[in-house]
Amino acid sequence: MNPWIVDLEVSMACHQKRDRSELRSERSEKLTSLVGYILRVFISYLLGIICKLLNMESDQSSNPQTGRTTWTPPMDRLFIGLMEDQVQKGQLLDGQFNKYAWTHFVDNFKQSFGSSFTKDVLKNRMKTLKKNYVAVSTLRGQSGFGWDQSREIVTADDAVWDDYIKKHPDVKCWRTKTLAHFDELAIIFGDNKANGRYI
What does the pLDDT look like over 90-141, one tens digit per residue? Predict the structure, then answer.
């Protein structure tokens, strides 16, 4: 057999193998690219669902059984920070925030936690925070009582607590209950506690 023909056949076989190999490589690259695209679309879809679920959870911050809003530490932290900021800007007069401040509070809450936070919901929370601040501030001012800053709790000897609770049973919960952000609440409510108004 002619060596030229053998070389030509070998060369053609090599090209065909190379063409098949290149074709496989090209198909593999296209398949990898397609799989990557499908994964990106799927992950994007899943993230969209997760975001919607998270927004639904924050929109549903009311307890369906009681209709009351469930407050979390991040919600309190945001609200107290917003109130403190408005106090420093002079938006609290005679123990009441002005209309601008309330609009600012509501807008920030809706943006952060969903549409269930209305002015009335925030006003009710402000009443609760002020009531808690006044109770703890009053306790701290009594003889024998102290404050543990790290635990954010009122402290006293058992005998002091027992004697005080006999005369004031409504403060029993503060024996074990903490009050976060006391110093910030003092900035917001400290000068207004004497007038007894909570809004």
Answer: 999 888 999 999 999 999 999 998 878 899 999 999 999 999 999 999 999 9
Question: What pLDDT, in 10s, does the model give residues 29-65?
Answer: 776 766 666 666 566 555 555 655 554 444 335 554 4
* Residue that is written with structure tokens 């090599």 in the block: 14
Is residue 101 within 8 A of residue 86, CB to CB? The reply is: yes
Chain-centroid distance of CA 23 in Å reads: 53
CA distance 67 to 89: 34
- Three-class SS of residue 72? coil
Residue type at 89 in one-letter notation: K
Question: Rounded distance, CA 52 to CA 119, Å?
Answer: 24
- How many Cβ atoms sit within 10 Å of the Cβ of residue 120? 9
Residues in the chain: 199
Q: Is the dihedral of CA 180, 182, 188, 189 positive or negative?
A: positive
The whole-angstrom separation of Cα 18 and Cα 146 is 85
Q: Which residue has the tokens 């709790």?
A: 153
Q: Could you tell me which of 112, 108, 104, 106 has the C-alpha nearest to residue 54?
A: 112
User: How many CA within 13 A on the CB side of residue 152?
Assistant: 11
CA distance 181 to 40: 43
**pTM confidence score:** 0.64
More confident residue, 46 or 69: 69
